[in-house]
Design goal:
With 127 residues, the chain is mainly β. 8% of the residues lie in helices and 39% in strands. The strands form two sheets. The protein has a four-stranded antiparallel sheet with strand order 1-2-7-6, with no helix packed on it. Strands 3-4-5 form a three-stranded antiparallel sheet, with no helix packed on it.
Length: 127
């Protein structure tokens, strides 16, 4: 982060990253936070949670959902604390996990919003 840097609407994400992860005082003393996960919206009712888990095998990764949350745990058989990972994300009222895929170090969790018919918006013909 530079002390004087111009931010515009095209690089507003850089401004937020710089604000929350570094300051002129801590920039050279603390490492930058590594972002391992991101939410990618596919359409209005579904999206994909992507988590970078390079160096792990499928057998070490456990994905489960309960009580409107989805959790990901990675166990390390060598007791290396830097390779352990556990995180939980809340799910919305009608959101469900549709599928999980692990390929080339990237775990993808497909999440869809499934609204029951009785809760959907109904349009009525006016007589």
């Amino acid at each position: 982060m530079h002390l004087f840097r111009r931010y515009t609407t095209s690089n507003i994400n850089d401004l937020l990253d710089d604000f929350f992860t570094s300051s002129p005082i801590t920039e050279y003393t603390l490492p930058r936070i590594y972002k391992r996960d991101r939410w990618i919206p596919v359409n209005d009712s579904s999206g994909r949670l992507e988590i970078e888990l390079a160096g792990h095998s499928k057998d070490d990764i456990e994905v489960y959902s309960e009580n409107n949350t989805v959790s990901v745990s990675v166990k390390d058989n060598n007791n290396n604390s830097s390779r352990r990972y556990h995180r939980t994300w809340p799910l919305g009222e009608y959101e469900v996990v549709k599928g999980v895929k692990y390929e080339n170090g990237l775990l993808s969790i497909e999440i869809s919003k499934v609204v029951p018919d009785e809760k959907k918006r109904n349009y009525f013909k006016i007589e």
